[in-house]
Specification:
mainly beta, Jelly Rolls, 4-stranded antiparallel beta sheet, 0% helix
């Protein structure tokens, strides 16, 4: 799996990537954290980013599977307590 987010900041935006097929996102969010990993996609580079889903500390298991999307990025929000938040992608 490729690490896409590794942050202690309140917010972060990962680098966009283009999965070759269906893909999974796994996150490491400590219990009690209010942080959310948002999975965003766009059908074309000129299109706006839209939410495909998210993972929080209460998502069990902390992994979600998504259909192929031309452009994908992960964003971090709500990490107000500054905990280390990590997320990976895999195909």
């Amino acid at each position: 799996m490729t690490e896409r987010i590794n942050a202690i900041t309140a917010t972060a935006i990962g680098v966009a990537f283009s999965p070759a097929g269906d893909f999974s996102i796994q996150a490491d969010i400590p219990a009690g954290s209010s942080a959310v990993i948002n999975v965003e996609g766009q059908a074309d580079a000129a299109a706006p980013w839209v939410s495909l889903g998210g993972i929080s500390a209460s998502t069990i298991p902390p992994m979600r599977r998504f259909a192929k999307c031309p452009n994908v990025r992960l964003t971090l929000s709500g990490n107000s307590d500054g905990k280390t938040i990590k997320a990976w992608s895999g195909e």
